[in-house]
Design brief:
By secondary structure, the chain is mainly α. It has 15 helices and eight strands. The structure holds NADPH dihydro-nicotinamide-adenine-dinucleotide phosphate (NDP).
């Protein structure tokens, strides 16, 4: 690796992040009201253009690769420099967004990690929406490049790598398609912007989520039989049904609490405030189970079930979501009081229906 290579990788990452930011600023979108309210009680407004920015950014990379201006596996070849550059950007961003604000009283390290500002916005820029978007674009560029490297370096590429990349792309596109629904999630209600969210989206999300391909890009095809690949795809979509179904049901309820049904399910809410039917009657966080199933399906699709690397992604979800469920339950108990107790009595399972 020459100094030139290092500079090329660092410059490419900077140019990519700058281009996504510029597109985020100029690409038309729609203005919507969110769930979080400002100090005067008015819902915050968001300019949503994530899917268009994603398509333009990834399309621009594909056009450059097609024209042979960059190689399709560019972000694989330069993965260590791009990761290192993103790391620095993530740290600088964290320091810049945290240190300019008044302390919350929790101490400097907690403030740096968890952040001080709840929902930083300026004009059409919303820090959280932008961070999720830039993470999604960079992750897709990594996925495409890593998969391309596998294809370019193996005479018989693994169908599992294609499946993994296609399913992950679906995951990112559908997240951006439902961008508005995510305004109703924990990150917007309960998180501030610090290292966890800022560095998390600029570095961890785009570079760790594809950990399976960091490993599998160099491996030969494990020759996974087609029926198994079909099974893994089915597992992925089962997880997606739980995650997307629960999120959409909650969104439908919060935006129209009087509705009587959600698809095939009767809409029943304890005290008119806490859903206890449909997906929310299966377990208190069946959406987390959905996320873990999708991640497990992705790990399996790569065809190396005995290797730890692909499993690090679903394991990360378990480490993230089990404590998050505990924290969210504590928050909900405080907010909803006896209504929440009744919900816990009616739906005793935390994440896995019938088990946990
Ligand atoms: P939830 O969507 O479950 O949101 C929790 C909030 O929903 C609670 O704080 C409460 O807020 C409300 N709520 C909880 N139970 C009920 C109920 N029974 N009826 C009505 N409202 C209820 O969790 P998250 O925000 O953590 O996650 C959102 C999605 O994002 C999930 O699908 C999750 O799996 C996914 N996710 C994905 C990650 C990724 O990296 N891909 C990372 C983390 C999450 P309120 O006070 O408003 O009522």
């Amino acid at each position: 690796m020459t100094n030139n290579d290092r500079v090329t990788g660092a410059a490419a990452l900077l140019a990519t992040y700058a281009a996504v930011f510029a597109l985020y600023l100029v690409v038309p979108g729609r203005w919507v009201e969110g769930y979080v309210k400002d100090q005067s009680g008015r819902p915050l407004r968001y300019h949503l253009n994530g899917l268009a920015v994603f398509v333009l950014s990834v399309g621009a990379f594909a056009a450059l690769a097609h024209a042979e201006i960059v190689s399709w596996n560019f972000f694989y070849v330069h993965r260590y420099e791009t990761l290192a550059t993103a790391f620095v950007i993530g740290v600088v961003f964290t320091l810049a967004i945290v240190l300019r604000q008044m302390p919350t009283g929790r101490g400097l390290f907690k403030d740096l990690y968890l952040g001080r500002l709840e929902n930083p916005q300026r004009g059409r820029i919303d820090a959280k929406m932008f961070l999720y978007l830039i993470g999604a674009v960079m992750l897709e560029l990594n996925l495409v490049s890593f998969a391309a490297h596998h294809v370019l370096t193996h005479d018989a590429p693994s169908p599992g790598v294609f499946l993994y990349t296609a399913l992950f792309t679906f995951f990112l596109v559908e997240y951006l398609f439902f961008e508005r629904v995510h305004l109703y999630t924990y990150d917007f209600v309960a998180e501030r912007v610090g290292f966890k969210l800022g560095w998390g989206c600029l570095v961890f999300y785009p570079f760790f989520y594809c950990v399976g391909l960091w490993f599998a890009a160099e491996q030969p095809s494990p020759e996974t039989p087609l029926p198994l690949l079909v099974l893994y795809a089915a597992l992925f979509f089962l997880g997606w049904t739980f995650a997307r179904g629960a999120n959409l049901q909650k969104y439908a309820f919060k935006t129209a609490p009087d509705r009587k049904r959600f698809g095939p399910f009767e809409q029943r809410a304890i005290g008119g405030r806490v859903l206890a039917s449909g997906f929310w009657g299966l377990s208190r966080h069946v959406n987390y189970l959905g996320e873990i199933l999708m991640a497990s399906a992705l790990a399996l699709a790569l065809g190396y079930p005995a290797s730890l690397w692909p499993w690090m992604y679903p394991l990360y979800y378990i480490v993230l979501l089990v404590p998050r469920q505990i924290a969210d339950d504590a928050r909900c108990k405080e907010k909803y009081g006896p209504i929440w107790d009744e919900y816990v009595a009616q739906v005793p399972r935390r994440i896995v229906p019938g088990l946990f």
